[in-house]
Amino acid sequence: MTLGIELCYDGAAYHGWQTQKNAVTVQETLSRAIARATGAPPLPELAGCGRTDAGVSAVSYVASFRTEMRIPPERFPMAIHAFLPDDISVRKAAVVPNGFHARFSCIKKEYVYRLYHSFLPIPFERSRAAFRPYPLDIRKMCEAAKLIEGTHDFSAFCASGSAVRSPVRTVHYCTVSGTAEAAEIRICADGFLYNMVRIIAGTLVSVSEGKLSADDVSGLLLSGDRTCAGITLPACGLRLERVWYGDEPGLDGIDRNVRLFF
What we know:
Blueprint: E1 2-9, H1 26-38, E2 47-48, E3 57-66, H2 76-81, E4 88-96, E5 108-117, E6 130-132, H3 138-148, E7 150-153, E8 168-178, E9 182-189, H4 196-208, H5 214-223, E10 238-245, E11 248-249, H6 250-256
Parallel strand pairs: 3-10, 5-6
Antiparallel strand pairs: 1-3, 1-4, 2-3, 5-9, 5-10, 7-8, 8-9, 10-11
């Protein structure tokens, strides 16, 4: 059977999701825990809904793998708990259609980027939000964020040297909420380029600080010039919030849209 699992993790101690040589990753840590919990080595071929970067966290991340385990799916989160570190937790598990793939069946994702303003950094925020020494102008950021929405070529908001078939993505919404002291940027799209959210967040901060205007954001979308966009903000402020399969996020969306995966 194919098992789908919904997990959350604090990415501070990991070099991203994807397994890499000489680096601790969420995928490898989770794979080893699954093998121990099911008593079925070798490691499972674990598919994830996306490649989060080093230091990026996830509130609701979906993965899938083939297994012959005898553990009832509803008991799997508790069964694997003893084999996982404290910064990774499997919250749900369910049998999904054999045609389902956590990454390729996903139709959209939502990321949240958190910022805070203080005269000096706050230690307990260092792995949860990005520090800014200047107050945040929410009005200006909201104005610029609306221009990000829609279908565009996002080359200006992609890390240099990235190899993708197409830089065109559709952003369903890009919103900014909060105060001058703390803010959240929330972005939902059908897909994301490498470092796209962190660069968009950096660009909105540049608008807040008067280094760029909202009109400049429109120009960036037309020019595709990465060098004119804002900086890539640190990974600590970024988290994957939700992923959708059909009309519902997470495993609920898979269960209610089985026809999509055959």
